[in-house]
Amino acid sequence: FHCSELSTGVDKPSSGRGELPNIFQRKGKVSFLRQRQPISKAQRRLIREHFPKFGITLRFNETIPLPKSWTTENRRVILEIGIGNGDNLVHHINSPNHKYINLDNKRQQSGSENEDGTPVFIGVEVYRPGIANCLGSLSRCNVSEDQVRLIRAEASTVIQQLPNACLDEVWLLFPDPWVEEHSFHRRLVQVDFMRLLAQKMKDSTDSSFHLATDVKSYADYARDVVSKITEWKEVRVGVNEPPPWRAGFITQYERKGIEEGRDIHDVTFNLKM
């Protein structure tokens, strides 16, 4: 780019040596592949210098504090789960075309957004190198701290500790697919997760959850999960036809899927009112 799952979570205080707080993840099943990723001195420095500005540290059984301006200015809050190195996140923060992400024409014309219509973002990632690289990108692009917050924790922990009715959109782009049938229960999209997520969405039919994947069985699985609950409705399914807001950027895993000849499935669900 260029500059133009359910448990309570705990973060311990940072050591002050470029370390992110340890996260307590739920024992047993998780929705991501456990990996040991080395972190360089430069990445530690990025965390030490920039996480205090852009990061949020989870505290045991406490609601995650979001900037007050996000509420007072009625900002559109978008949560991206699994940001990796933050390329997609930073792209959308800096995109000149993101003013009304995922809003229909009627709402765009009504001017019902905050004054400038600029969304704000929460990025969630479990891996320290990814958080560090994203912090570096935010710094290089001179992103304001009012535009984004990063959280290093498992997604379901974050969802549980977010305030109710605080999110407008949630993006789950190319998650670990867990393609073996005996591993389907590890997929993030589950009935309990989607019901909890519904509580965190603002009371609006524009509130949405978007899944993009290059694994058809994941898209089908998610659609089946949502069909079993009353909180969500399916509003869009596309194969190799991303929604307009996603068409301008290809993620690392999306590119890999395309290069290996797999179809890209985009599914959007809106909150039922």
Low-confidence stretches: 4-19, 21-28, 104-116
* Share of residues in helices: 25-40%
The Cα radius of gyration reads 18 Å
Sequence of strands across the biggest β-sheet: 3-2-1-4-5-7-6
What average pLDDT do the residues reach? 84
Descriptive overview:
The protein has 273 residues and is of the alpha/beta class. Helices cover 30% and strands 15% of the residues. The chain has helices at 41-54, 68-72, 87-94, 105-110, 128-140, 155-161, 191-200, 216-227, 252-259; strands at 77-81, 120-125, 148-152, 169-173, 208-213, 232-239, 265-271. α1 (41-54) packs across α5. It is globular and about 45 Å long.
Kindly summarize this structure in a few lines:
The chain has 273 residues and is α/β, with parallel strands linked by helices. It has helices at residues 41-54, 68-72, 87-94, 105-110, 128-140, 155-161, 191-200, 216-227, 252-259, and strands spanning 77-81, 120-125, 148-152, 169-173, 208-213, 232-239, 265-271.
SSE blueprint and pairings:
Elements: H1 41-54, H2 68-72, E1 77-81, H3 87-94, H4 105-110, E2 120-125, H5 128-140, E3 148-152, H6 155-161, E4 169-173, H7 191-200, E5 208-213, H8 216-227, E6 232-239, H9 252-259, E7 265-271
Parallel strand pairs: 1-2, 1-4, 2-3, 4-5
Antiparallel strand pairs: 5-7, 6-7
Tag the structure with descriptive keywords.
7 strands; 9 helices; 15% strand; 273 residues; alpha/beta; 7-stranded mixed β-sheet
